[in-house]
Design brief:
Oligomer: single chain
Shape: elongated
Order of helices and strands: HHHHH
Number of helices: 5
Distance between the termini: 82 Å
Radius of gyration: 28 Å
Number of strands: 0
Number of domains: 2
Length: 102
């Protein structure tokens, strides 16, 4: 009798787990706008992994990622692209004001 109770408990756990997985994988409605927004705002896990691997293998990639983020946020200008600007920030910029004083 105790064997049948154990089998019933294990069977109910398995059936419950299968039912939960079916419930979890059910499709849901997503509008086209919401799908496009999600796809545009977050990179996939695979591409994020490749970027991380590329940063390790090629140190220049880290600078490229930072430059891409600056472009998206509007903080990248033509002077930075040329590489003509001061590296230390101690020299005066246009208008006679140093970077540290701004």
């Amino acid at each position: 009798m105790n064997d049948w109770i154990g089998v019933a408990v294990i069977g109910s756990i398995v059936v419950g787990a299968i039912a939960f997985l079916i419930w979890l994988s059910r499709p849901y409605e997503v509008t086209t706008e919401e799908f496009e927004k999600r796809a545009a705002e977050a990179p996939s896990l695979l591409s994020a992994g490749f970027v991380g691997l590329q940063k390790i293998l090629d140190p220049a990639t880290a600078k490229a990622v930072i430059a891409q983020q600056d472009v998206r946020e509007g903080r990248f200008d033509a002077k930075q692209a040329k590489g003509d600007g001061p590296d230390t920030g101690d020299e005066e910029e246009e208008g006679g004001v140093s970077r540290q004083e701004q």
